[in-house]
Amino acid sequence: MSVSDNKQWGVAMNEATDTVQPVKVTLFRWAGAWGPFKVNIPCGECSLTLDVIKDTFDTDLEGIPVELDVRDWLSEWWKPLFKGGWHAPIVMVEGRLINQGQALNRGVLTEAIINAYAKRSEVSGNLLFGKATCPHCVRAKGYLDEAGINYTYHDVVRDPRALYEMLARVKPIVGPKTPTTVPQIWLDGRYVGGADQLSKLLEREVEPNPDRGQCSLSAKAA
Q: Are 1 and 32 in contact (CB under 8 A)?
């Protein structure tokens, strides 16, 4: 027995979702039957995990197309076993095990879904990921404001989803070993980089940054 819930949750971070395949989330709960064995005792952590998944879809992941498939573990115990899942509740995202044996951490779910979604969707519009205490983020916002460019700002400290989104988008560009700094900027869906790259793109003088380390696009030292 399975329960499927395929739902589109609005529009995610300036991206159209109508043509993006939903990210599939599978929950194997402590239920079902196998031969003479049948689950008679409800699993409280499975129920809690299901509630966490649905609430995360509606809040933290609003705008991202997702598909939830709830399966009875005892009736199909061998399916998650091949992925390392043997203790319900078992949660998988796109077939990858992210949680088992305990109530789900919503941050783990959010990160896994955003990572999967970023691989199959493109950025559109003008985005700036930053944080309130970053002077270079302030500088970048000033450049955009002075140029009359409308943009959407995401604070990666206050909004975990924004942090996961930024990392999922930037890491494939700069490489997994390159430190990811802020700000990170996209214009018209095209990756720009940090404040210095934005300044050059807008043909503005770059202010010296003696206290700043290498940005993600800086030339490597010889």
A: yes
